[in-house]
Amino acid sequence: MRIIVATCSAEYSGRLNASLPYAKRVILIKADCSCLIFSELGSYKPLNWMAAPCTLKERDLSADEAERSEAIDVNDEGHTPCKILDVHAQKSSDVLTVKLYDVEYDISSDLGLDPGLVKEGVEDQLQRYLAEQIERIGQGSRLVRREYPTAIGPVDIMAVDSEGHNVAIEIKRHGGIDGVEQLTRYCELLNRDPLLTPVRGIFAAQTISPQARTLAEDRGFECLILDYDEMKGTENSDLTLF
Amino acid sequence: MRIIVATCSAEYSGRLNASLPYAKRVILIKADCSCLIFSELGSYKPLNWMAAPCTLKERDLSADEAERSEAIDVNDEGHTPCKILDVHAQKSSDVLTVKLYDVEYDISSDLGLDPGLVKEGVEDQLQRYLAEQIERIGQGSRLVRREYPTAIGPVDIMAVDSEGHNVAIEIKRHGGIDGVEQLTRYCELLNRDPLLTPVRGIFAAQTISPQARTLAEDRGFECLILDYDEMKGTENSDLTLF
DNA sequence: GACTTGAGTTGGTTA
DNA sequence: TAACCAAGTCAAGTC
């Protein structure tokens, strides 16, 4: 990893064109030549970047005043670059050009391999909890199976309600319109099967957008808000019973 | 901006739990205390981070050997931390804890305000070009309007073809299944209006996934590939005529 | 390898 | 402020 702190300007050309005016920023260059430009602004996303695989060409302009003056453009506000980084994508014509002016730091450190991040618990967890606590969709309900396979993909949970009717459940962390569309496709398909029909649909999520709720209810689906902490608590109290 | 290069381990607890084992990494701490942890892996996304607004507590363990030995846990592989960074989110209970072992660099630099990124050319641009060059959907077509309002949201472009039939156009940079669903909803709604029906649907994008194309054509929609550069070129040659 | 879906998504626009 | 939608999305899993 190479870390540069410098006043710079940058131009990106690829799926879009984007430019960064002259300012002081932090530039990270990884071992694979991918390049990230940060300011104090924003969250974890860099202002501009080049993804690997890519190649980096570095031109030092300090020795060649003629070339150096050529490199000045209208965005430099009269400043003179001392270095140009040209980062080219290998699989496309994307280019990121960074001009460096005053370099405050330029340090390198070999980080070596990273063991990587260990994650635990997202949508999968919601599905697991609801499968374990299937009566949250109605007393007397029974689980058929998680990831119930169909021709157009797996239904998150299939269950049977107290009246013996099949229930297809679509689970999302946040329920939007496309989740309702997904549930619609499943129910449409499942209801074509005379052995399964009638199949009810339940749209279950931690949060559901108003538009999605309206659409879901309009299509006869029930909306179910899932409380992650409550479900987690229920799991624990279940465990303490034994 | 503060830049630390050090061997470290980290724990995040929030919407998920995630942990980073002992390894050398780069840690950026912005002026707003938001914190990013990078390795040579991955693209622009840090391995772990804390978004602003948040607070940072820094504990130096070098003076207190008792505390220091307490801070050793099973993931440290026998190493002894010299510093702990505790980053707490202000609006939730999210916590990121970073333990530092050997610190190679710890530098700070005030970057100041950033003028920000200037972008050009995304979906909005595609919509603008197609509106200007509406005959790309068929000779004799006329533009009705961009962002044609309906009860379920604006249709990207409404037009009338050479036969006087209404045409609803959904534009995407990349056309996937949900784009087809979107177009389906619009056409369904618009065709309920006796003043508008029959309304044709066109699915226009720079790229269209095979599944989306199949679904779109199955529903009677035309698929139109948009060439950004060609449309941009057409705009320019239009201009040079005058 | 192409495609689909989720993400601690982030970020911008509009009602 | 809340909801909705696009992103140079990225990344993981599946076919």
Compact overview of the structure:
The structure is a homodimer of 242-residue chains. With 242 residues, chain A is α+β, with helices and mostly antiparallel strands. Chain A has five helices and 13 strands.
Which fold name corresponds to the CATH topology of the largest domain in chain A?
A: Trna Endonuclease, Chain: A, domain 1
Summarize the amount of helix of chain A as a percent range. Answer: 10-25%
CATH C-level class of the largest domain in chain A is Alpha Beta
Order of helices and strands of chain A: EEEEEHEEEHEEEHEHEH
Low-confidence stretches of chain A: none
Q: Provide the CATH architecture of the largest domain in chain A.
A: 3-Layer(aba) Sandwich
Strand content of chain A: 35-45%
Question: Quick one: which chains have the greatest interface?
Answer: A-B, 53 and 54 residues
Described by its quaternary structure, the protein is homodimer
How do the strands line up in the largest sheet of chain A? 4-3-2-1-7-6-5
Tally the beta strands of chain A. 13
Biggest sheet record of chain A: 7 strands, antiparallel
With helices defined by DSSP (H or I, 4 residues minimum), what is the helix count of chain A? 5
Shape of chain A: elongated
Distance between the amino and carboxyl termini of chain A: 52 Å
SS class of chain A: alpha+beta
Mean pLDDT of chain A: 88
What is the total number of structural domains of chain A?
Answer: 2
| Radius of gyration of chain A (Å) | 28 Å
